[in-house]
Amino acid sequence: MKKVLYLLFLMFSMFGFSQSEANLEKQITEVDRMAFVDPDSALVMVKKLEPKIDDDKLQSKLLLAKGSAYSVKHLSSAALRSGFEALDISQKSQDSLMMVNTLGFIGNQYYILKLNKKAINYLNRAETIIDFLKDGSLDQMSANIYFVKALIYKDNLDPAFAITYFDKAIFEYNKNNDRSSLLNKNITKIQKGYSLIDIGKADEAEQLFLEVIKESDRYKMAEVSDYAKVGLAITYDNKKDFIKANQILLETEKRIGKTGNIGLLTEVYDALSQNYLNQNNAPQYFFYNQKLEKNLLTNDNVEEKSFSELLRKNIETQNSEFENNQNLFYLFAVLIILFNIFSLFYIRKKINGLKSVKF
């Protein structure tokens, strides 16, 4: 299965640049945007811009945009190389804000590669600088770092500690009321909900998923709402309320089937197969398990198809909001993808175990 492995910690600012530099930064912003939907064209633009840039900050930003494009193309080594080049420039120029951005980018690349110790090392360095600077403009960056660290602790089977960092991220996101912060906050809550299930707090998880569903429906974030509904169904399954879990999952399956969201549909199949397995319903278990295997084995581009429409839609409708903070949105649109990716890897691993089940 191919991976959509790209992540960006970067906040653009037009402050302090001359008119020509401001124009160059605007072009770099466009490159960064393009990296997520057309990385090849983005890399062509990078080559055209590189000879024109002699400012350290702009050069670092272009390198991170370049790294994002490589990451989208699954070229992690090239992405890391760009990240380290940007880090070297920011360190030599003593640009603390760019150091935070580059350290965050590198940390996320290592997280994507599942090199969690290295990821934590770079994210901790970024967090240390943030704590020292106490710059309010880095609140969202702090939240991003807390979120990814929480995912790492969650992957390492330490859900209680992960919840601590999920809560820290939620606190930071609550400082802003824009749509991207709302999106990020609810994604964080969904992940926290799964961690609550892991430590036996199904009732708290249920309330959290219901809260996400209500807020997502209110602000017309359908994909987030559907993901929360899968989490809610898993909560009911955990509480042995199989009928309620089935009802939610079957309704979600019917709705998602019309949208072509293969990634989310795969999660629904996994939850349904697990639900029927818990009920010792062999025919339904094998029915949905076969659907699950088919999606996992035949859809190499599951993650791209699952979220490409969500990404394009937000690019088109949120331009005014993204003018000041567009990269933060891209970060967590991608984190949705990562959430889905690692769920699918977990599902694949679990399938191999379930194949030996005899009824």
Number of strands: 0
User: Over all CA atoms, what is the radius of gyration?
Assistant: 21 Å
Number of helices: 16
Mean pLDDT: 81
Indicate the proportion of strand residues: under 5%
Largest beta-sheet characterization: none
Which residues form runs of ≥5 with pLDDT under 50?
1-17, 300-325, 355-359
Q: Looking at the structure, what is the overall shape?
A: elongated
Task: Give the helices and strands, then pairings.
Blueprint: H1 19-35, H2 39-49, H3 56-72, H4 76-92, H5 96-112, H6 116-133, H7 139-155, H8 159-173, H9 179-198, H10 202-218, H11 222-238, H12 242-257, H13 262-278, H14 282-298, H15 302-317, H16 319-354
Descriptive account of the structure:
The structure is a single chain. It is built from 16 helices and no strands. The model is unreliable at 1-17, 300-325 and 355-359 (pLDDT under 50). Helix 1 (19-35) packs parallel to helix 3 and helix 8 runs antiparallel to helix 9. Helices cover 79% and strands 0% of the residues. The longest helix has 36 residues, at 319-354. It is elongated and about 65 Å long. The protein is an all-alpha fold.
